[in-house]
Amino acid sequence: MGVIEVESLVKEFNGFRAVDNISLNIEEGEVFGMLGPNGAGKTTTIFILATLLKPTSGTARVAGFDVVKNEMKVRRNIGIVFQDIVIDDRLTAMENLRIHAYLYSMPREEWEPRAEELLELVELSDRKNDLVGHYSGGMKRRLEIVRGLLNQPKVLFLDEPTLGLDPHSRRFIWDYIKRLNERGVSILLTSHYMDEVDALSHRILIMDHGKEVILDTPSSLKNKLGQDVLRLKGQPNQELVEGLKKLSFVNDVKTSSEGIEIGVRIPGGEAVPELMKVIYNQNYPFQSLTIQRPNLEDVFIYYTGKSLREEPTDTAHTMKVKRRGQRRR
Amino acid sequence: MGYLSELMGVFQRGVIVLWRNKLLFFGNILMPLAVVIFFGPAADAQTFGDLSFESLSTGMLGLMCFFSGMFIPNNLIWDRDSKFLNILFVSPCNRSSIILGYSLVGAVRSVAQTLIIYIGVCIISGSMGYDIIFSGWVMLGLIAITILTTVFVGGFMTIIASYSKNSETFFMLSGIIGMPLMFLSNTFFKPESLPFNLGLFGRFNPLNYMIDTVRYLILGELPPGVTPWEGPLLLIILAVVFTLLGTYIFVHTVKK
Fold first, then answer.
1. Predicted ipTM?
2. In this complex, which of A53, A76, A82 lies closest to B255 when CB atoms are compared?
3. Under a CB-based contact definition with an 8 Å cutoff, are residues B149 and B65 in contact?
4. Helical H runs in chain B?
5. Which of A28, A198, A324, B22 has the fewest CB atoms within 10 Å of its CB?
6. pLDDT (tens digit, 9 = 90+) per residue, A89-131?
7. What does the pLDDT average to over B94-111?
8. B221 falls in which pLDDT band (50, 70, 90)?
9. Is there a contact between B1 and A88 if contact means CB atoms under 8 Å apart?
10. pLDDT averaged over chain B?
């Protein structure tokens, strides 16, 4: 039995389907990522699992309890960090945590040492008696993670945990999430940052328009698209191109004013030695050689036909990604 | 123990925020005191017919409780719109403890403000030769009436807040409901001196029973046919009923 079990979950608002037939099973100790653009249904799914919304149909169980029939038991076993920062900045960090402990009927001897330990973990111990209104966004987010963990939940929901944070703070938060998972906390993470979901998740569910697009491990998702691309920066050279095309692992070779792009069927690192032999034999002067693996954005484009960043997609790039995936199959 | 702990969580948050916003707290005291200082003597000069300094002052004390209760749900709306309410709703606490917690915070503010105004009224009364004398027993009675009134009005206004999309709508609806209740209460006019239909409305105005009780506590006077226990009993019933009803309606309008 998984720590979260969802079966054919649907949520409608005035006829609009925000969550459309989602099913998933999250194992204990797993970090499960939900990736999708704004409006994909990620937050709505989390709100249903956190008992803030009732599903229109389907079932969901968290920590073994039904989210509709056993709301209170679900709430006792979860912690949540919302997308919006909802910490009371008129109170200090410890006041916020004390009040949270009261809401969970935690005795002082239980919550106080735990709060101290968690504040130490997120490096906020020396600011615990300062008003939260004086905190930076990253500090508030870290405090919210402490609050979400105070009641020792079996499942922690993180809804866009690094939204609006600077890169340094994002890395801090990622480190904390990894440390939490090492301690055995099961985590359901939603994000529209592909690097975040890629870095943290054991498995990823890609969502769009409320629907499941695909569910798999990050590496499997990227491998489904097939080839790495090696970029050779320098003057295009037709003889070199012909020599490269003869290599057995090369799928295609394209030239541009900047250089040569080589699609390969094997991992890019394994292709480099043979490529270098050809380049050396041709005595070709190049400026740089880079290896680009397919990323989750490429996966998203392949399966949905549009970019995760919601910008108008370059049709040529979309087609290239689709062809890459089809060649792999 | 669990319910008390949950209630303490909501209550403590409100009290800490209240304590840290002293300007707002003391600002809310100035208006009723100003009414007593400037209109009290005028009332006593029979400018307003039924009124005297004593009746106006005791009426203003009662209205203080009423106004404190009216604006309790504004905190709820603010927390709903800022999504802080989600933190409360995702916790395993009983929903009525949330609404009651907010109401009790309002009651604390209301009690503090009422007692300060009562002391102010006693001082003004003494200096101007009127008949309101300070008493510890009256203070205790005022505390009880204030808490009950604030909880009742807070619960009732929570129902209004449930159907208010935002603070502006809530204030508009509060005014539409509050103004008739206030002006047709026996703070300014005796019900029998009003036109028949308005006087009838006054008979069903819960504020009248509350203000009658405050006047009985301070002045020892009651309208003919009214017993001392009617007001407190009615307030207890209304406090319980509207806290439960307000909780039910608010929770079910927030959670879809």
1. 0.79
2. A53
3. yes
4. 2-19, 22-44, 53-70, 72-81, 84-89, 95-128, 136-162, 167-183, 196-203, 206-219, 230-254
5. B22
6. 999 999 999 999 999 999 999 999 999 999 998 889 999 999 9
7. 86
8. confident
9. no
10. 83
Cross-strand bridge partners of residue A10: A20, A57
Residues of A in contact with B9 (CB under 8 A): 99-103
Residues of B in contact with A99 (CB under 8 A): 9-10, 12-13
CB-nearest partner of A72 from B82, B88, B92: B92
Nearest to A86 among B1, B83, B255 (CB): B83
Please tell me which residue, B94 or A75, carries the higher pLDDT value.
A75
Burial A43-58 (b: 16+ CB within 10 A, else e): bbbbbbbbbbbebeeb
Chain position carrying tokens 């029979």: B46
Reading phi first (left if > 0) and then psi (alpha if -120 to 50, else beta), residue A184 is in left
Q: In the structure encoding, which two tokens stand for residue B237, read together?
A: 């019933």
B24 touches chain A (CB under 8 A): no
Three-state DSSP state, A58: strand
Residue A131 per-residue DSSP state: B
CB atoms inside a 10 Å sphere around CB B102: 27
Contact B90, A78 (CB under 8 A): yes
Interface probe for A, chosen from B87, B97, B105 (most Cβ of A below 10 Å), is B87
Rounded (10°) CA dihedral A192, A195, A196, A200: 130
Pairing of strands A186-191, A31-35: parallel
How large is the greatest C-alpha to C-alpha distance in chain B, in angstroms?
59
Dihedral sign for Cα atoms in the order A244, A246, A248, A253: positive
Separation in Å, CA A41 to CA A55, A211, A217, B187: 12, 8, 20, 54
Which tens digits make up the pLDDT trace of B47-77? 555 667 777 788 888 887 788 778 778 888 8
Burial class of residue A204 in the structure, from the number of CB atoms within 10 Å of its CB (0-12 exposed, 13-18 middle, 19+ buried)? buried
